[in-house]
């Protein structure tokens, strides 16, 4: 039997948590031969702690053979101890009348504290995925608050956007999702993101040529992927949860077990490539192998793409400027 992997999850009693934890415990994230220990973190208030207890009871009732242990926590210093993987899902949602700036600052406090806790107590190789919004900037704050950990281990979730784009492209082209390769979603997990299928292939042939409809790309596809989150809220009355959990599983599974040569999108700290300033957590195409990701480099960027990539960058830089005073 392999040594169990410690997976810390914040926001464990929330919507995404409820769709996520059972799949982690069943082996869908790390493999059917990999035991896990779940370290579940919620805010220190009665209701969420009580809800967390209920979720843990249900996890128990599944009798998952791979669930080697489980504990609930009300603070990250205890909850992140020795974590090999940290899924930072919990975040402050936007309340009525709350300005975007206030939302950023409220979350900055949470992710500063969580970054420090990771720095203090997590495994030195911890792989961090930030799901809680604004995901890219929250990941940036956590990374900056954890100076003793490798910056490359802090990532933000763009995979839901990637998967959304894949499905739209499959529907438009009539090709199976599994056959579409080399898709990219650049930038921020927000409506400014830029889903880009210029390099995408189906069975080696260009998907862009196959679709052959640039007006659809610009006027339908890009806005539809960007506004998909809002469309789900409108339809369901609640934000995406099962699809977000699914994307988190995809992100970590590929990071740990490899993407077999396929491109996937991860929000990662820029190394200055593609004109994106170093350190900005930005959606890039990567391939993953042996527990590491590497950026797909030297893709040609045309004028339209440059404009789109700069627009989403400008939003990230604005968010970064809004929290700079907290990061010293
Ligand atoms: P939810 O409100 O159902 O659950 C969030 C949970 O997090 C709550 O139980 C809350 O008590 C907990 N929480 C809040 N602050 C915490 C903290 N400091 N430590 C530990 N737990 C904390 O929300 P849901 O639907 O599960 O979404 C979670 C986050 O994921 C939201 O910020 C949402 O915007 C984001 N999201 C991100 C997506 C992405 O693609 N990156 C996609 C969908 C949602």
Automatic annotation (TrEMBL):
Pfam families: Ldh_1_C (PF02866), Ldh_1_N (PF00056)
Residue stretches making up the Lactate/malate dehydrogenase N-terminal domain: 5-154
InterPro entries assigned: L-lactate/malate_DH, Lactate/malate_DH_C, Lactate/malate_DH_N, Lactate_DH/Glyco_Ohase_4_C, Malate_DH_type2, NAD(P)-bd_dom_sf
Top EC class, one word: oxidoreductase
Keywords linked to the UniProt accession: NAD, Oxidoreductase, Tricarboxylic acid cycle
Residues forming the catalytic site: 189
Positions that bind NAD(+): 11-17, 107, 114, 131-133
PANTHER family: MALATE DEHYDROGENASE (PTHR23382)
Function: Catalyzes the reversible oxidation of malate to oxaloacetate.
Protein name per the record: Malate dehydrogenase
Organism this protein belongs to: Chitinimonas lacunae
Gene label: mdh
């Amino acid at each position: 039997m392999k040594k169990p992997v410690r997976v810390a999850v914040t926001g464990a009693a929330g919507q995404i948590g409820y769709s996520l934890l059972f799949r982690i415990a069943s082996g869908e994230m790390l493999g059917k031969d990999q035991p896990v220990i779940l370290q579940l973190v919620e805010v220190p208030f009665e209701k969420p702690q009580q809800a967390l207890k209920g979720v843990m009871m249900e996890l128990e009732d599944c009798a998952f053979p791979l669930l080697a242990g489980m504990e609930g926590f009300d603070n990250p210093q205890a909850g992140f101890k020795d974590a090999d993987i940290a899924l930072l899902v919990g975040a402050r949602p936007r309340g009525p009348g709350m300005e975007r700036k206030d939302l950023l600052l409220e979350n900055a406090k949470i992710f500063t504290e969580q970054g420090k806790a990771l720095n203090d107590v997590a495994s030195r190789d911890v792989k961090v995925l930030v799901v809680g919004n604004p995901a890219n900037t929250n990941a940036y704050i956590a990374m900056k608050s954890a100076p003793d950990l490798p910056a490359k281990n802090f990532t933000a979730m763009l995979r839901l956007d990637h998967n959304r784009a894949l499905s739209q492209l499959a529907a438009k082209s009539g090709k199976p999702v599994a056959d579409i390769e080399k898709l990219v979603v650049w930038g921020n997990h927000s409506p400014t993101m830029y889903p880009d299928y210029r390099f995408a292939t189906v069975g080696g042939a260009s998907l862009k040529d196959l679709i052959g409809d640039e007006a659809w790309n610009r006027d339908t596809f890009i806005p539809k992927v960007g506004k998909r989150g809002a469309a789900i809220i409108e339809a369901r009355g609640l934000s995406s949860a099962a699809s977000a959990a699914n994307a988190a599983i995809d992100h970590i599974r590929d990071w740990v077990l490899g993407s077999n040569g396929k491109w996937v999108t991860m929000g990662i700290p820029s190394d200055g490539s593609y004109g994106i300033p170093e350190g900005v957590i930005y959606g890039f195409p990567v391939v993953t192998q042996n527990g590491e990701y590497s950026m797909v480099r030297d893709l040609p960027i045309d004028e339209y793409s440059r404009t789109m990539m700069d627009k989403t960058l400008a939003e990230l830089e604005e968010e970064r400027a809004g929290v700079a005073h907290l990061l010293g």
